[in-house]
Recover the amino acids of this structure.
C-alpha cells in the first residue's frame, strides 16, 4: 500500500495529530477552507490570552463557545480508533496531539500515552492561582446565568485549561513531547498544517534523530520537503488502512 506501512510495522511510532483528525467527528478545524478562523477571523480573539484577559466581552463569548463546543457531543472516529489499536498492538508508543477534545483517550488510548501540548477543554484553570477543576462544573454556572464565572478560590479569571496564543506552554509537557520525538523510529503527522510551533518543530526533531517522517494531510505543509512519504488521501479512510496493513505484516 504505502512504504509507511512497513515503517509503522517496525514499531516505535509516534503520532503527531492536529485538528484534521477530528473533523470526521464533527469538530471543525481552524485554518482549512471551512475552518473556524477562516469563516470568522474575529474568533481568533477567543484564542488570544491578551484579548481574553483584557476584554470581558471576549470572555463572555468564549464561555458561550465552550458551552456549545462540539467536543461534548463528538465521538471518536475511525482514525482515532486506528491509533488506539496501533498502541494496543505495541507499535505506537505515544500520541502527541495539538487537539483539546480528548477523543484519543475516549477511543481507548491509555491517557499515559497521550501528550496534550495545547491542554484540554475538559478542565478549567484559574489564571491567578492555577487551580484546576472539571469544565462541566463551570459550564453549569454559565447555564445558570454567570456570563463570566470567576475562580471560587481566589476570584481570579477562569478559562479552559488550554494554551491560548501568547500564553506560556507547560515545559514538562513540551519536554515529554520532545523526548518522544527524539526516541521514535517513525513519526506520523496526521491532520496538522505544521505551521504552529513548537508542535511543528517536533517533526524536525524526529527527522534529525533519524526517524522516518510520514505526513497525512490534505494540504501542503512546510515540512513536506523533509518527509519520507506524503499522503493526501482522506484521513478517516487512509489511516485505518495504513494501520491495518502495518499490523498484518
Amino acid at each position: 500500500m504505502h512504504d509507511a506501512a512497513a515503517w509503522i510495522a517496525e514499531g516505535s511510532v509516534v503520532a503527531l495529530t492536529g485538528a484534521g483528525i477530528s473533523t470526521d467527528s464533527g469538530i471543525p478545524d481552524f485554518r482549512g477552507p471551512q475552518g473556524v478562523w477562516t469563516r470568522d477571523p474575529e474568533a481568533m480573539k477567543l484564542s488570544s490570552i491578551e484579548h481574553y484577559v483584557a476584554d470581558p466581552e471576549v470572555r463572555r463569548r468564549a464561555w458561550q463557545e465552550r458551552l456549545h463546543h462540539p467536543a461534548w457531543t463528538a465521538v471518536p472516529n475511525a482514525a482515532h480508533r486506528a491509533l488506539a489499536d496501533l498502541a494496543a498492538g505495541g507499535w505506537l508508543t505515544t500520541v502527541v496531539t495539538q487537539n483539546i477534545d480528548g477523543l484519543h483517550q475516549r477511543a481507548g488510548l491509555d491517557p499515559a500515552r497521550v501528550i496534550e501540548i495545547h491542554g484540554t477543554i475538559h478542565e478549567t484553570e484559574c489564571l491567578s492561582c492555577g487551580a484546576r477543576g472539571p469544565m462541566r462544573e463551570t459550564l453549569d454556572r454559565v447555564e445558570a446565568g454567570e456570563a463570566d464565572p470567576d475562580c471560587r478560590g481566589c476570584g481570579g479569571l477562569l478559562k479552559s485549561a488550554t494554551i491560548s496564543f501568547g500564553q506560556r506552554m507547560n515545559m514538562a509537557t513540551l519536554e515529554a513531547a520532545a523526548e518522544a520525538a527524539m526516541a521514535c523510529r517513525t513519526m506520523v503527522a496526521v491532520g496538522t498544517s505544521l505551521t504552529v510551533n513548537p508542535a511543528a518543530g517536533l517533526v524536525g526533531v524526529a527527522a534529525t534523530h533519524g526517524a522516518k517522517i510520514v505526513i497525512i494531510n490534505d494540504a501542503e505543509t512546510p515540512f513536506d520537503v523533509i518527509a519520507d512519504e506524503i499522503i493526501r488521501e482522506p484521513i478517516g479512510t487512509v489511516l485505518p488502512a495504513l494501520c491495518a496493513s502495518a499490523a498484518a505484516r
User: Anything to note?
Assistant: The chain has two domains: 1-27+75-118+170-249, 34-73+119-162.
